[in-house]
Design brief:
The protein is mostly beta strands and 271 residues long. It has helices spanning 7-14, 186-189, 253-267; strands at residues 26-31, 38-39, 59-60, 70-72, 81-87, 90-95, 103-105, 116-125, 133-138, 143-146, 151-156, 159-163, 173-180, 190-194, 197-199, 202-204, 217-219, 221-222, 235-236, 239-247. Strands 2-3-4-7-17-9-10-11-12-16 form a ten-stranded antiparallel beta sheet, with no helix packed on it. Strands 1, 5, 6, 8, 13, 14, 15 and 20 form an eight-stranded antiparallel beta sheet that branches. The longest helix is centred in the C-terminal third of the chain and has 15 residues, at 253-267.
Amino acid sequence: MGGIMMPYMADMAQQGYVTPNTIPNLSLWYNGSTSATVVNGVSTNNFNTAVSNGTSISSWIDLSGAGHAANVNGGTGKEPNYATPIQNGLGALFYTSSNSENLDINPIAWMGSLTGFTIYVLARPTVLPVTAFPLTVTDTSTGIWWNGTNYSLGVTAGNRGTATVTNDTTKFHSYGMIYDGSQTGNANRLTFRYDRAAQTLSFTGTIPATTGSPAYFYFGGNNRSGGAGGALASTYMDGYIGEILIWTRTLTGSEVASVEYYLNQKWGLGL
């Protein structure tokens, strides 16, 4: 970002809540609230304001400063569309499962050796029952997805927690996954927060002390055979993703509260 505060970041600061990049170790940040952060064209991390409602989005700019743009996976016709205004006057990316729409990021080295990370996603399903809702996931099973019955949170293949929450198509929700491999026991290593509240997890396998091999990140779907340990091969979502935030460490309780307050106030969740 070159130290320059974009106008929408200044607006957020004036509204009394922190911006995500003020919390250390923000490594991926995708913000659909303004068309200036999405691209209709070749992969780039340059800002593009020539995007309007209904535009196909081939690249989503990474605002963390790391330069990991998320690009269309599968070529022309597989792009999500930009939708605005969709929530609190803000925009989001709309994904359609019948078109196998998704974006991905090439493998990132740091994903293979983490002892802690924090993921937050702001999203809304549009079809019920929700049979597949992969918010963000890697092909080594790190991430958050809906498996048709409950939400699964994976760290490595076969090792995950699951939580049952009520889905609806009327509003956006915040989803938080907090991983701390330095702790002992599954429940201490993995936490799921849904709409600013901790959820009870049931576990399969043992949540590991470190993440697995570097992997592709997918937003809205996964079209790589055997992805997510085989659990998410060729599954796609119907719905909106407004924002994705990933830190390469376990956020503190006060930092989690700040992130959730930011999402709530910015997106008008009323939580």
